[in-house]
Design brief:
alpha/beta; 22% strand; 2 domains; Urease, subunit C, domain 1; 423 residues; 8-stranded parallel sheet; 14 helices; 7-stranded mixed sheet; binds fe (ii) ion
Length: 423
């Protein structure tokens, strides 16, 4: 036996359980496990969760904030322009270095699986090569899944489809797209068809930036659901952002939601980014822009929250903290009921794990010994406090530790230490 974690609260509500790990796998989950000879960690009735998973990120651009200049308007389109200015000066070494640095942050935050889009519109495929190298380097401690992303448009950029296929041949995992950025709605729809057919042929997953727009008529999600259903790709296709759904007509959405469900298409909202980039043409009231998270969930669609950006041309903040992402998602979606808050925690853990197709994820016998001990009693408290990741464990080995958050008070008649928890 390698490790036993005692007195764990689990995300599903089980309390005071012990978790035994041998050879990197969970071999027992039960109360009062009789185990001898293993090292032990007392979780002290803290929440012990499988690692956080980020289903939507851009690792090729991360930590490049201010290069070559700051996005002054803060808009999506100026962000794409700034990225276009930076691209010719990118080097593989710089991308690798920044990405590794971000992965260090991720591990410290208990984020051990990331799906990152990688721009393949540069004919050198520099970023794809760099992130494939990063994927190899971080594999012992972080699962990195890469999406071939035609940032400048599959049909709008002359070599994009060829480059996308080259990137897949190099080892990039997932087929990406950006239909709302093509020249016309018709070309957007055509790009969805081409990409889905290619992915189906290759047996690959699909994750498209889809309708990242305030235009209520941007309806590529309907086309994505249609082709996912037609090609039998249920469970392997994801629509990222889907912000136009925020602005769509309610009657149309009442037809669209069951179509998405029927097609087995998952949805990813990126609350930190959607709330800052959308509604930019509005005066007041300003639309939030995030997709219809609780309604999608109620229709039976898998919905994850993604970080999307961290210190890049589109977003000047971010630190790989999926509890911050869930916290923002919960607020923007007004999911303040107990069920809603629990669902927000699942949106940064088990739901994105399912979307990525991660195997052996969870706190069950047979799962990887990948766990995070949080300075919180339960998922809701974890989100409320953006709780410290006391210990991050990969394959039964502690790979990161953080101190519990507390303050020392100097107040007459009050305790000397306050830890922000109710229990
Ligand atoms: Fe994105």
């Amino acid at each position: 036996m390698q490790l036993v974690i005692r007195n764990a609260n689990l995300p599903d509500g089980r309390q005071g359980v012990d978790i035994a790990i041998a050879d990197g796998r969970i071999v027992a989950v039960d109360k009062n496990l009789a185990v001898h000879g293993a090292s032990e960690i007392d979780a002290r009735d803290n929440l012990v969760t499988p690692p956080f998973v980020d289903a939507h990120f851009h690792m090729d651009a991360t930590l490049s904030y201010g290069l070559p200049r700051v996005n002054q308007s803060g808009t999506l389109l100026e962000g794409i322009a700034v990225w276009g200015e930076l691209k010719p000066d990118l080097t593989q070494e710089a991308i690798v270095e920044r990405a590794l640095r971000y992965c260090d942050w991720a591990v410290g935050r208990g984020l051990l699986a990331i799906r990152s889009h990688v721009d393949i519109c540069d004919d050198r495929l520099l970023a794809a090569e760099a992130l494939l190298e990063v994927k190899k380097q971080v594999a012992p401690y972080l699962d990195l899944q890469l999406v071939a992303f035609p940032q400048d448009g599959l049909l709008r950029s002359a070599s994009a489809f060829t480059n996308l296929k080259r990137a897949i041949a190099m080892g990039v995992d997932v087929v990406g797209g950006i239909p709302h950025f093509e020249r016309t709605m018709a070309e957007g729809a055509e790009s969805v068809r081409l990409l889905c057919e290619y992915a189906a042929e290759q047996g690959l997953r699909v994750d498209m930036h889809c309708d990242e727009s305030d235009d209520p008529m941007s309806r590529h999600i309907e086309t994505l659901a249609f082709h996912s259903h037609r090609l039998g790709m249920q469970g392997r296709v994801t629509g990222s952002h889907l912000t136009s759904m925020h602005s769509m007509d309610n009657y149309y959405v009442s037809k669209l939601l069951p179509l998405i469900r029927e097609a087995g298409v998952a949805a990813i909202a990126n609350p930190l980014i959607n709330i800052t980039l959308q509604g930019r043409h509005d005066t007041y009231p300003k639309r939030r822009g995030m997709t219809r998270v609780p309604e999608l969930m109620a229709a039976g669609v898998d919905v994850a929250f993604g970080q999307d950006c961290a210190m890049d041309p589109w977003y000047s903040l971010g630190s790989g903290d999926m509890l911050e992402v869930a916290h923002m998602g919960l607020h923007v979606a007004q999911m303040t009921g107990q069920q809603g808050m629990q669902a927000c925690f699942r949106s940064v853990t088990e739901t994105p794990a399912r979307i990525l197709g991660l195997e052996h994820y969870g706190v069950e016998v047979g799962c990887h010994g990948d766990l995070v001990i949080l300075d919180a009693a339960n998922p809701v408290e974890a989100i409320r406090l953006r709780a410290a990741r006391l210990k991050v464990i990969r394959r039964g080995v502690v790979i990161s530790e953080s101190p519990a958050a507390h303050a020392h008070l100097s107040l007459p008649g009050r305790p000397e230490t306050v830890n922000f928890r109710l229990g």
